[in-house]
Amino acid sequence: MARLSASPSGRRINLPNVITAVRIAVCPVLAWLALQPGTGARFGAFAVFVAAALSDVWDGYLARKHGWITDTGKLLDPIADKLLLVSTFIPFYMISNRPGPAGDVPWWGPLPFWVLVVIFGRELFITLFRQWARSRGVVIAAGRSGKSKALFQSLFAGALLLWYPLSATAWAGGWTDREVWPLWASVHGGFIAVTLVVALVLTVYSMIDYLWSYRSVVGVRD
User: Fold this and answer.
1) Which carries the bigger pLDDT value, residue 202 or residue 181?
2) Half-sphere exposure in the Cβ direction for 181 (13 Å, CA)
């Protein structure tokens, strides 16, 4: 029977790597569920996203606590993070740009294409910058600004994944005529709009922060 790994060389299964691999595997499922018109599928997308986001915290905690950090994990974890980003933001763009207001992002309307350019452009640029720095013997670790950026991207994605089925259920059930729904819609919608703004600001800031922190790699001196 395969055993969980506390030592990468001595055992066959590393639990954090298994969790990360599962997170990678569910990303297509998440994207498919998010794109379905039914509220059940979209509630499912929200549940899958929350589980995936929590698993990211869990596998990192286990790896650090038990010394289960491996080269495979270092490779898989950023791949999982980027796939989770793709499996949410691409569906958001597709849903919000369908005809009619049902898929609009609160306060934003259809998600602008430039938002995708900023989000994914930053990820591509930093990935290439990391690889280039590594070729010069410099390892660029995840910084605080990058982690904050990822947190607000996740908050936005989770809130919007929940917004779609909730708002559809409210319209179908006639809840929009009740006093509580306008209040909820205002708070929930405002949260979505604000977290996207903060995520975009931190996306740009974190890129500048990485470049400035590792300016010596590109030969820039004070």
Assistant:
1) 202
2) 14
39-66 and 71-96 helices cross at what angle (nearest 10)?
A: 160
Residue 154 has a CB neighbour count (10 Å cut-off) of 21
Asked whether 63 and 69 are in contact (CB, 8 A), the reply is yes
Please report the sign of the dihedral spanned by the C-alpha atoms of residue 177, residue 183, residue 184, residue 190: positive
For residues 62-90, b (16+ Cβ closer than 10 Å) or e, as one string? bbeeeebbbeebeebbeebbbbbbbbbbe
Q: Are 23 and 55 in contact (CB under 8 A)?
A: yes
pLDDT band at 1 (very low <50, low <70, confident <90, very high): very low
Which residues is 13 bridged to in the sheet?
A: 4
Convert the pLDDT of each residue in 140-176 to its tens digit: 767 788 889 999 999 999 999 999 999 999 888 777 7
33-57 residue pLDDT tens: 999 999 999 999 999 999 999 988 8
Question: What is the total residue count of the chain?
Answer: 222
Positive or negative CA dihedral for 103, 146, 51, 195?
A: negative
Partners of residue 109 on adjacent β-strands: 105
Residue among 199, 184, 187 at smallest CA distance from 111: 199
